[in-house]
Design a protein that fits this description.
The chain is mainly beta. Helices cover 8% and strands 52% of the residues. The protein contains five helices and 19 strands. It has a 16-stranded antiparallel beta barrel with strand order 4-5-6-7-8-9-10-11-12-13-14-15-16-17-18-19. Strands 1-2 form a two-stranded antiparallel sheet. β18 and β19 form a beta hairpin. The longest helix is centred in the first third of the chain and has 14 residues.
Length: 400
Amino acid sequence: MLTSLVIAILTGIAAASEPTTEPDPVASPPSPQSSRTTPPSSPGPWPESVPDVLLALGPHHQLSVSLMGQLAASGVFHASDPPIGDIQIRRLRADSQLFLADDHLRVRVNLNLAPRALELIETWVEGRVRRTALRVGVLKVPFTRYRDGSFASLSLVEWSPVTRAFGSERQVGAMLMTEEAGGWHGALSLTQGQSTRTSHGQGIADVLETSSCGWATMTGPPCPLQGVAPELVVRAGWASPSGSATDPFDRQGGALRGAWTASAAVDTSPDPDRDMAARLALEGSLAVSHVVVHAAVYGAWFVAEDGWRPGLLGWRGELTWSPHRHVGVAVRASSVFSLPALTQRAPHAGPWSTLEAIAGLTIPIIGDEVRWQVDGGWIRTTSGLLADQGIVRTMLQAGF
């Protein structure tokens, strides 16, 4: 697999004589028209982005191949215990996309090759007509604009705890979506109901301390698909036509811009010990003069003996500042906590919650493809017992 990928990359570099404009090969595209432009040249010592490796298959067809990796180190500090350190390949994504019929048809296969987490990420076929696209396959359901973004462009080293609790994650199904180029936009998905991975959307399972597994793993015994229990997810929003307000950093600057989205999800046959029966989220962003403010609130219901009951609440607030196009500063606070109806079912005594306060620095060396990040802060977890810990993390990301 890796040998073939290296050969394809070298062949593409030799064949690509001009810069191109193609969708980000790493990010889960938030809209059918999202794209990245590779300039022929850029001021300063560093280029703006790494060119996609493109193989021309004819006048209207192209193949894009990319490899994105993250090497992360972290230290955790407890008041009464010695520090715990860890260094690992956090992610190693091999991504291939085929663009056919002048980009009206796309095919994507995305794998995680990291030794600790060898798994299928996504594989889908997408048809596009003007501002609308229909995607079918293993795809990320569109619950929240924040989670629909890419890990490769996060303002801090890791996702906020709200994504672990509320999601979203990949499932088998279909999604209809419209472009986010300013004004109104939306997405609607109907999926099989069982997540392929267990990284996100595990709030109920975490509170009740029930095990969960994903059927897309390649390193252990996967969970078989349990049949069809459809989950419906809808997202709608609006963004200023004058420029993006949802990007983690406002590197271009400019006048005041805003954006908001509302997301909802309903599981028609949830597992009472693992699944959320329904989820809601509201997100808003404001950007002006290299400063961005993001805010979001979340809620989830679970299945109790007497019907649906409120189980989880969460919130996220984030402030970023870009004093230079190669420097980004971010501060984030977020929390997730269980409500009494769910807490009463938990095996531990007392409430369950996670609270974090993190600040960090991002140095984009070549766009978001090659960058260095460092962050640190405080995390408090409650699961019967209260635990405080300090954390320091650093990560080098490289994509080709």
